[in-house]
């Protein structure tokens, strides 16, 4: 099992390092890490370049998380490993993807905040709960006008996947650890929400309308 776990973490990390923001930079000529809130995630791409680029970055980062976990799921499908071990390996590769997204080596370990990557791995782990988490993220973000509040709801569903349908202790430990990391990554956003200085979802959507004129 140790070899499986190490392989899952390493392969997940490498895949996680493939940032959608790099595609946005090639297409737009703008390095989003140098402006806005200065991270390489989809939300900053939307703030800096508009909602279309934000959607592109989100799609690519969601897809890499989905593809990594789904590929591992297919690989493990032909194994005789017990269910608890399979779930542990799936969550380890999921953790690798998120770590690669958040701490890519070529960005001096300063990447995104992992939200899109988590959506992808959630859909691959359980598509119904994954889509539920995505729907809650969107609805709550629109209702509150703050993306970070929707992100916290997303991670609550991720914890639910770790309890069920996942099997064993490792999924719970990994999901809880990733949620704690997400909270720390979004701590500044939470402070800005309290101060009233956080970028609002409606402002990003208005930017889209203005750029379309």
Automatic annotation (TrEMBL):
Which segment of the chain is annotated as a signal peptide? Answer: none
EC class (word) = transferase
The source's domain of life comes to: Bacteria
Q: Where would you find this protein in the cell? A: Cell membrane
Give the pathway.
Lipid metabolism; phospholipid metabolism
Q: Which GO terms describe its molecular function?
A: acyl-phosphate glycerol-3-phosphate acyltransferase activity
- Report membrane topology: Multi-pass membrane protein
Q: Which residues cross the membrane?
A: 53-76, 85-103, 115-139, 146-164, 170-187
Q: Name one Pfam family in it.
A: G3P_acyltransf
> EC number(s) in its UniProt entry?
2.3.1.275
Q: Which UniProt keywords apply?
A: Acyltransferase, Cell membrane, Lipid biosynthesis, Lipid metabolism, Membrane, Phospholipid biosynthesis, Phospholipid metabolism, Transferase, Transmembrane, Transmembrane helix
Q: Name the chemical reaction catalysed here.
A: an acyl phosphate + sn-glycerol 3-phosphate = a 1-acyl-sn-glycero-3-phosphate + phosphate
Q: Which GO terms describe its cellular component?
A: plasma membrane
Q: Name one GO biological process term.
A: phospholipid biosynthetic process
Q: Which family does it belong to?
A: Belongs to the PlsY family.
The record's annotation in PANTHER family points to:
GLYCEROL-3-PHOSPHATE ACYLTRANSFERASE-RELATED, INNER MEMBRANE PROTEIN YGIH
Q: How does it assemble?
A: Probably interacts with PlsX.
Q: What does this protein do?
A: Catalyzes the transfer of an acyl group from acyl-phosphate (acyl-PO(4)) to glycerol-3-phosphate (G3P) to form lysophosphatidic acid (LPA). This enzyme utilizes acyl-phosphate as fatty acyl donor, but not acyl-CoA or acyl-ACP.
What is the name listed in the Swiss-Prot or TrEMBL entry for this protein?
Glycerol-3-phosphate acyltransferase
Its source organism is Planococcus halotolerans
């Amino acid at each position: 099992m140790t070899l499986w776990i190490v392989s899952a973490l390493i392969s997940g990390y490498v895949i996680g390092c493939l940032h959608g923001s790099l595609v946005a930079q090639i297409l737009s000529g703008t390095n989003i890490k140098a402006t806005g809130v200065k991270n390489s995630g989809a939300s900053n791409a939307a703030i800096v370049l508009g909602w279309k680029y934000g959607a592109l970055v989100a799609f690519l980062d969601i897809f890499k998380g989905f593809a990594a976990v789904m590929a591992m799921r297919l690989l493990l499908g032909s194994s005789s490993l017990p269910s608890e071990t399979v779930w542990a390996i799936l969550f380890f590769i999921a953790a690798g993807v998120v770590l690669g997204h958040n701490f890519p080596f070529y960005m001096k370990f300063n990447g995104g905040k992992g939200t899109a990557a988590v959506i992808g791995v959630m859909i691959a782990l359980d598509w119904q709960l994954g889509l539920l988490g995505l729907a809650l993220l969107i609805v709550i973000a629109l209702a509150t006008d703050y993306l970070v509040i929707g992100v916290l709801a997303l991670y609550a569903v991720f914890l639910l996947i770790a309890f069920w349908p996942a099997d064993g202790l490792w999924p719970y430990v990994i999901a809880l650890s990733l949620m704690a990391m997400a909270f720390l990554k979004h701590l500044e956003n939470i402070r800005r929400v309290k101060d009233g200085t956080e970028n609002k979802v409606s402002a990003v959507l208005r930017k889209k309308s203005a750029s379309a004129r």
